[in-house]
Target: Molybdenum carrier
Amino acid sequence: MIISGGQTGVDRAGLDVAIALGIGHGGWCPAGRLSEDGSIPSRYELQEMPSSDYPARTEQNVIDSDATLILYETKLGSGTRLTRRICDRLGKAYLLVRLPVDQPAMIASWLAKQKPATLNIAGPRESTSPGIYERSFAFLIDVFNEHP
Model:
């Protein structure tokens, strides 16, 4: 299963890859299905948190996953750094993946080692990294083709 918080960018790329490949998906999102582009579309099978607080849903998704894949391009933004800090605090496995530097085969190898039943996918939103959705979607498709 792939989970994320449903924000634009990397979160939605992860969910759309799951849908495209027939992998179960889900995760937690803020109350009201809040995202930077309005309400998160209903096609994403997300549960709403009691509050609209982004950090709370980020933490719940880390808690509910076996491992977290964090995608980024140049530097970690505040939300992405928060995800890493939560993983560290909770002792949860995570991998920082720099696009386009890191190769899908390396990530597939990490996934084979971790064997997560539930994988949290996180990274920047579209407004802070324009085009990150398309780049992340293509990259993740390659990863899962390497690691079915």
Remarks:
- The first strand starts at residue 2 and ends at 3.
- The chain has five helices and nine strands.
